Amino acid sequence: MTATTTTNTTVAVAGGTKGLGLTIAEALAIHGKHNVVILSRKSTPSLDEKLPARLVVVDYDNVQNLTEALEENKVSDVICTINAYGSSLPERNLIRAAENSSTTKRFIPSIFAGFAYPTKLVSRGRQIQNRGARGTGEDILIHTAVYNGMFMDFYGSPLLKSNVGFFPMFVDIANNVAAKPGSGDQAVVLTRVLDIARFVVRILDLAVWPKESYFIGDRVTIHDFVNMAEEARGTKFRITYDSKEELEAGQVTELPCYETTFAVVGKEMTKQLFAQTGLWIIGNELDLRPVSTLNETFPDIKTMTLRRFLELSWKV
Ligand SMILES: NC(=O)c1ccc[n+]([C@@H]2O[C@H](COP(=O)([O-])OP(=O)(O)OC[C@H]3O[C@@H](n4cnc5c(N)ncnc54)[C@H](OP(=O)(O)O)[C@@H]3O)[C@@H](O)[C@H]2O)c1
């Protein structure tokens, strides 16, 4: 995949060797408007040649090394998709380097969240504003925090290719079972990873970046989600309900699809995460309701509905 560039700006996708970052790098390469580099901790020649952009090896522990990498590659924009599982240090160092770099002006932090982060956790986007190492006014690193809902791809099958692995919660489509948090009447926002990449590429075209960028792939209740999955599979699912009290006690119905995560992450930690997510759903926190969305700014981006996604993934 070769990018035909029409501007001299270089966009760096940190963590673009897999997952969302790889999808964004692929979309940027097809878009063809920017030079693109992928920042990674390591080079593996057999894998690197399959990447959609040139790989630049960086040391996230070394701000000087990161700054030089940004300046040497004339990076104007950094899209950070690092997923360091609990450690924010690599991203914080990259933010510091972007602030130091004479060529770098804009930064998208690795948020891409399903709920409005600032209300629950210290936003990584805020780290940029709070640190203020680069001064104030025009000198500050321009940034936008992206909120996209849950990754729809977590509910796919190998029939619909994605760079993101399966990670279904509450609806186990492969095994025709579901465990609805609460009544199942609360809505969640889900967006296909390819659609997230499309919006992120278009954000680069905006002259002024909003502090927060929201976009919505689809919005469905868990109840309707299960109905759509049943229709795609052509069979009724076995359904259980996990009450608020059960979830508060860390109890979740153990669906067969959780076994893989139990094996990797540990059963208790996984159940805690899923119980917490169930409580967020009951509290309507995964039903993003922003004042405005990038869907309105870019009406030509037609996002994939969950119904279509499930049909393409599961209807045979
Ligand atoms: N809304 C949702 O439902 C949802 C779901 C999942 C993820 N997310 C968010 O989406 C973003 C991307 O997630 P993802 O699942 O696509 O990521 P991922 O594929 O798990 O990882 C992305 C990259 O992170 C880099 N990385 C991992 N550990 C690192 C470390 N210790 N230091 C530096 N780099 C490290 C790796 O790059 P190298 O090995 O090449 O260095 C890897 O390619 C994250 O912000 C995540 O929180 C959102």
UniProtKB/TrEMBL annotation:
SUPFAM superfamilies reported for this sequence: NAD(P)-binding Rossmann-fold domains
GO MF annotations, alphabetized: oxidoreductase activity
Keywords in alphabetical order: NADP, Oxidoreductase
Domain NmrA-like: from-to ranges: 8-205
Family: Belongs to the NmrA-type oxidoreductase family. Isoflavone reductase subfamily.
Protein name, UniProt field: NmrA-like family protein
